[in-house]
Amino acid sequence: MSVKPWEFYGERRTIDAARGNVVQFLKDTEALHCIASLTRKVAVLDHSFSLVLGI
């Protein structure tokens, strides 16, 4: 069974697309982690201010 160039190319594009999706997923995940981290920091600061101000 011989592999035709366009079949290989099609498979290659699928692999590249999958890899692109993984990279995009990681970037999205990283962004979510940054947002979560910032939210936590703001919550901690907010809590600290509440303690300092006695609210």
What this model shows, in words?
The chain is mainly α and 55 residues long. The chain has a domain at 25-55. It is 89% helix and 0% strand. The protein has one helix and no strands. The longest helix has 49 residues, at 5-53. The N and C termini lie far apart (76 Å). The mean pLDDT is 81.
Secondary structure elements and pairings:
Blueprint (H helix, E strand, L loop, with lengths): L4 H49 L2
- Indicate the overall shape: rod-shaped
Oligomeric description of these chains: single chain
| Structural class category | mainly alpha
Main sheet specs = none
For this entry, give a set of tags.
mainly alpha; 55 residues
Short description:
The chain has one helix and no strands. It has one helix spanning 5-53.
